[in-house]
C-alpha cells in the first residue's frame, strides 16, 4: 500500500487490474475496464441508504454483449455458423468465450438452467467434432468440450446425480487427454477427489488428488488438489499433513499469475484458497483462523450493491461460523446461521450435507432439542437427497 501511495505512478494496465482485484476495489471507482467489460453502458444505482446519487455503476453485461464486444457476433449468429459449418478462427474464439462465461456462471446461476444450457452446447461441440475441422480447430473444440464436460459433471453432482456425474467426469478426462490439456485432466481428478471426500472416502480422495497433481503439476488446478488433500487429512485427524498440503498449495498459488476471470469455477485465486483453508481450520479446531477466513469469504463474495455472487461459498462460511458458535455454547446463533445457509438458493448438495452434518454434530452436545429449527430443515434436505 505504501508503494502504491508514495511510489512512482504505475503505468502498466495489467498491474493496475491486479491491484484492483486483490484490493477488491468497486468498479465504479476505476478508470479502466477488465476483459469482457465495457464502461459505455452505465446506469444510476438504486437509491440505497448511503449511496451517492451522482455515482454511476457499471451494469454487468449479458453473454451476448460479451460475445459482440470480443468477436462481433451474438449467440444466434454463433449457432448459425455452427449449423452451417462456417467454422473459422472467429467462430472458435466465440465458442471459447461462450464456454468460459458458462463456467463463470456456475457460482450463481440456477443449476437446472445452467446444466441444460451446458448440455446443449456440449451437444453442439460433439456435432462439430464430427465435421471438417483443421487440426488446430479440432484441438480447440476438444478443449472446449472438455471444459463443458467438467461443468456439466459438477452440476450433476450438485444436483445429487452422482452416477451420471462420474460418467461425465470420465468423458472430460478422455477429452482432456485427447486435446493435450493437462488442466482439464487435472480438474477431472479434482472432481473425483471431491466425490470421494463428500462420500467420506478420505484415503481415496487423497489418492485421486495425488493423481491430478502428477498429471498437472504446474496448473492452477493443482492448488485446489492440495486443498482437497488438506480437507481429507483434516477429517482423518492428521494436522501435520494438513499444514503440509496447505503450504504446498499456497507456495504454488504465489507463483501463478492472477487469473483474468477469477469468477471462473475452474481457476483458483487467493479468494478460493482462503475458502479451502477455512474448511481445514474449522475441522482441526483452529476456530480463530476459521472465523477470520469465513468472514473474509463472505465479505469478498458481496458486490458493492450488496448482491451475493458466491452463494455456495457464502453458505459454507455461514455453516463454519455456526459450528464455531455451537462450540462456544451459542446454540441459538448457531442454529440461525445454519438455517440461513440451508435456505441458500444455489447449493451443492453433497458439500452442503457434509458441512451441515458437522453443525448437527456440534449441536448434539447440547441435546436433541438444541437448534430444533435447523435440525428439522436439515432432516428434510437429507430425505429429499
Structural account:
This protein has 385 residues and is mainly α. It has three domains: 121 residues, no CATH class; 87 residues, Alpha Horseshoe (Serine Threonine Protein Phosphatase 5, Tetratricopeptide repeat), CATH 1.25.40.10; 110 residues. Helices cover 68% and strands 1% of the residues. It is built from 18 helices and two strands. It has a two-stranded antiparallel ribbon with strand order 1-2. The longest helix is centred in the middle third of the chain and has 24 residues. It starts with a helix and ends with a helix. About 6% of the residues have low confidence.
Structural class: mainly alpha
Q: How many structurally independent domains?
A: 3
Spatial sequence of strands, sheet with the most strands: 1-2
* Largest pleated sheet: 2 strands, antiparallel
Helix content: 55-70%
- Mean pLDDT figure: 83
Amino acid at each position: 500500500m505504501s508503494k502504491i501511495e508514495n511510489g512512482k505512478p504505475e503505468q502498466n494496465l495489467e498491474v493496475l487490474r491486479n491491484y484492483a482485484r486483490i484490493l477488491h476495489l468497486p468498479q465504479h471507482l476505476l478508470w479502466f475496464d477488465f476483459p469482457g467489460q465495457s464502461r459505455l453502458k452505465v446506469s444510476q444505482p438504486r437509491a440505497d441508504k448511503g449511496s451517492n446519487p451522482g455515482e454511476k455503476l457499471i451494469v454487468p453485461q449479458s453473454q451476448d454483449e460479451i460475445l459482440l464486444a470480443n468477436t462481433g457476433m451474438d449467440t444466434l449468429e454463433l449457432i448459425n455458423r455452427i449449423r452451417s459449418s462456417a467454422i473459422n478462427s472467429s467462430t472458435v474464439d466465440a465458442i471459447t468465450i461462450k464456454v468460459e462465461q458458462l463456467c463463470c456462471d456456475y457460482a450463481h446461476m440456477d443449476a437446472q438452467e445452467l446444466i441444460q444450457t451446458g448440455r446443449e452446447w456440449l451437444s453442439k461441440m460433439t456435432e462439430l467434432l464430427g465435421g471438417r475441422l483443421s487440426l488446430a480447430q479440432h484441438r480447440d473444440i476438444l478443449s472446449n468440450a472438455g471444459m463443458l464436460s467438467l461443468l456439466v459433471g459438477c452440476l450433476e453432482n450438485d444436483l445429487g446425480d452422482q452416477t451420471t456425474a462420474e460418467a461425465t467426469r470420465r468423458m472430460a478426462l478422455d477429452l482432456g487427454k485427447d486435446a493435450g490439456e493437462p488442466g482439464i485432466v487435472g480438474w477431472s481428478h479434482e472432481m473425483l477427489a471431491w466425490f470421494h471426500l463428500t462420500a467420506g472416502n478420505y484415503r481415496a480422495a487423497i489418492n485421486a488428488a495425488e493423481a491430478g497433481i502428477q498429471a498437472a503439476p504446474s496448473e492452477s488446478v493443482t492448488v485446489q488438489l492440495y486443498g482437497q488433500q488438506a480437507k481429507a487429512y483434516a477429517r482423518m485427524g492428521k494436522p501435520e499433513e494438513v499444514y503440509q498440503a496447505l503450504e504446498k498449495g499456497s507456495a504454488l498459488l504465489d507463483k501463478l499469475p492472477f487469473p483474468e476471470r477469477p469468477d471462473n469455477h475452474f481457476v483458483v485465486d487467493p479468494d478460493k484458497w482462503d475458502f479451502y483453508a477455512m474448511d481445514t481450520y474449522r475441522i482441526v479446531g483452529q476456530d480463530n483462523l476459521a472465523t477470520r477466513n469465513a468472514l473474509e469469504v463472505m465479505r469478498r463474495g458481496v458486490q458493492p450493491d450488496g448482491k451475493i455472487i458466491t452463494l455456495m461459498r457464502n453458505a459454507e462460511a455461514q455453516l463454519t461460523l455456526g459450528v464455531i458458535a455451537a462450540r462456544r455454547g451459542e446454540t441459538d446463533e448457531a442454529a440461525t446461521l445454519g438455517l440461513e445457509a440451508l435456505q441458500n438458493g444455489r447449493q451443492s448438495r453433497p458439500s452442503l450435507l457434509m458441512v451441515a452434518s458437522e453443525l448437527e454434530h456440534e449441536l448434539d452436545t447440547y441435546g436433541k432439542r438444541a437448534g430444533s429449527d435447523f435440525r428439522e430443515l436439515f432432516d428434510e434436505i437429507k430425505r429429499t437427497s
